[in-house]
Amino acid sequence: MIRACFKVAGQACQFNVLEGPEDIPEFVRWIRSGKTFGLDTETTGLDWWADDFRLRLVQFGTDREAYVVPVELGAELLGAAVGAIRDVIRREGRLILQNATYDLLVLDATTDLRMEDLWPGVLDTKILAHLVDSRGEAEGGTGHGLESLTKHYIDRGTAASIKASMGKLARDLGVKKGEVFKAVPWDNGIYLTYSALDPILAFRLGRILLRKIANGARSLIEFEHEVAEICSYMSRRGVRLDVDYTVQLSEKLYADELEWTQIARELGCENPWSTEQAADAFEARGIFAKDRTPSGKRKIDKKFLGELVRKGDLLALAIEQAKSARKKRNTWLKSFLDLVDGKRYIHPGINSIQARTARMSIVGVPAQTLPAGDAEIRNCFLADEGHCIVSVDYSNMELRFLAAHSGDRRMLKAFREGEDLHQITADAAGVSRKIGKMGNFLIVFGGGKAALVEQAGVSDDVAESVMTGFMETFPGVKRFMDDKTKEARRNGFITTPSGRRLYVDKSRAYSGANYFIQSGSRDITCRALVRMHRKGITPYMLLPIHDEVLFSVPIEKAEAAAKIIADLMAETIKGLEIPTDPEIGRDSWGSLYDLEDTKH
């Protein structure tokens, strides 16, 4: 047994590293002496689905002691670590982890442990931290990562050492930071100290954070852990990638990029990605950029190019298309092909509780960031063999949530009688329905007059009339928004219907209503995930996308499944129904969009 000491917040801590089977009995006695342990894993990287991915260490900790099990040394040590985890779960103990989803996916992928058995005994400090303070460090909060939480709640010096240790190891080994975890020998002193520290910190953070969650939000602890569990199952199952189509599309986009770049060059812009060269080319043709960047450079942005494209300007079109083709190829398609596993699936990283409002984020499959209506990229993703894609989303969820909680009579009447809310706003301002719709959603998501001018390309006067028309038509909404602003200014936070406390900068107290709506709407989707999970639908879930959930279901059961799912997802808020809209596609995600689709 290797033994060493270090200090955390001035307190002496010890860690013990098993070197072989002879050390297992001592480790087992220690595990059986308690019921709550911090838990962490060390691996060769983050790609737990990859063929060459390996689990290297499993670490257990209490507030002042840790045991590190180098499972890569053999089956007996691996069995000891797995047995210890099973023993804690069997005794209805508790395992405290920082960002539990990742470590549980690792254990599920590399051992015979299954997430279904582990989640009931898990406490995730990342979830607890968000319930205490939803803000990131850059927003003035504690943040939710191990380093930032350690700095805030335990010890700044320890946090600094976490940050510095991997950099030092990389320099010592002569490798890049991303290669450290694969290259470092298991018995390296810095590596073992770093590894032993994590479960001790997780244990301490769990104890600290549990005490700090507001009473009204305590019911969210179990709820958020169940949501995280459901999202981990979606990550594990993955989404099937049409590799051949993705490769062909990448090649096509490369050809498009070259073609449009050549057109831009022929029109006087050698490099379409250089704003200065583009500005010079436009000025040579008598077209001048009105706006400037903060540094004073001419602004050749989407708005500038879009206005010219609508007027039929070929140079603007060439620059726009060249940029679009490169972005699609490099930002999305390349990552898809880099992330696909041996079975042609991509496993999205679903952060179940993210952002200040707790809205989810997804990496790997850019479900939340793809342009609306873009079938081309979505066609890269397929339902399982013999399945079709089903999508169920909510109808005007945020606006209905706003109507229910504001109690605005006109808005409630519109929804209950099936009126077109966007047309009502448009008529009040004397604009098109499209502008009315943009105004409605900008108000819900915290945008103002300037945002409407920017996004809709309307004048300040028109934007002002849309905002004024909305507030005059729906006075209850204005009162509600004013009340939330006062609440944020008075308390420094607003409290959502689920008891979630969201801190609001007093200088931006007007964001209180926006946070309330976004967070409350997010909880509607999450409650639906929980209901579907408890009904056994989780194996068919692919992705949660804000107010939409994507599924892969057997073709012959698609209609029945879509109805069941739609009924389960529907919810009533204060007497107002939040209805759902199911759609059945073909085998590709892109088939849900009414665009030309010759492939699927």
Helices and strands in order:
Layout: E1 2-8, E2 11-17, H1 24-32, E3 36-43, E4 55-61, E5 65-69, H2 75-90, E6 94-97, H3 100-110, H4 115-118, E7 122-124, H5 125-132, H6 146-153, H7 156-173, H8 180-183, H9 189-212, H10 219-237, E8 239-241, H11 243-266, H12 275-284, H13 302-310, H14 314-339, E9 345-346, E10 349-351, E11 361-363, H15 375-378, E12 381-382, E13 387-394, H16 397-406, H17 409-416, H18 421-429, H19 433-444, H20 449-456, H21 460-473, H22 475-491, E14 493-495, E15 501-503, H23 512-534, E16 541-545, E17 548-554, H24 558-569, E18 571-573, E19 576-578, E20 580-584
Parallel strand pairs: 2-5, 3-6, 6-7
Antiparallel strand pairs: 1-2, 3-4, 4-5, 8-9, 8-12, 10-11, 13-17, 13-20, 14-15, 16-17, 18-19
Polypeptide structure, described:
This protein has 600 residues and is an alpha+beta fold. The protein folds into four domains: 2-213, 2-Layer Sandwich (Nucleotidyltransferase, domain 5); 241-339, Taq DNA Polymerase, Chain T, domain 4; 345-395 and 522-592, Alpha-Beta Plaits (2-Layer Sandwich), CATH 3.30.70; 398-498 and 505-519, 5' to 3' exonuclease, C-terminal subdomain (DNA polymerase, domain 1, Orthogonal Bundle). Helices cover 51% and strands 15% of the residues. The protein has 24 helices and 20 strands. The strands form six sheets. The protein has a seven-stranded mixed beta sheet with strand order 1-2-5-4-3-6-7, sandwiched between helices. A hairpin with a 2-residue loop joins strand 18 (571-573) and strand 19 (576-578). It is globular and about 80 Å long. The protein starts with a strand and ends in a 16-residue tail after the last strand. The model is unreliable at 595-600 (pLDDT under 50).
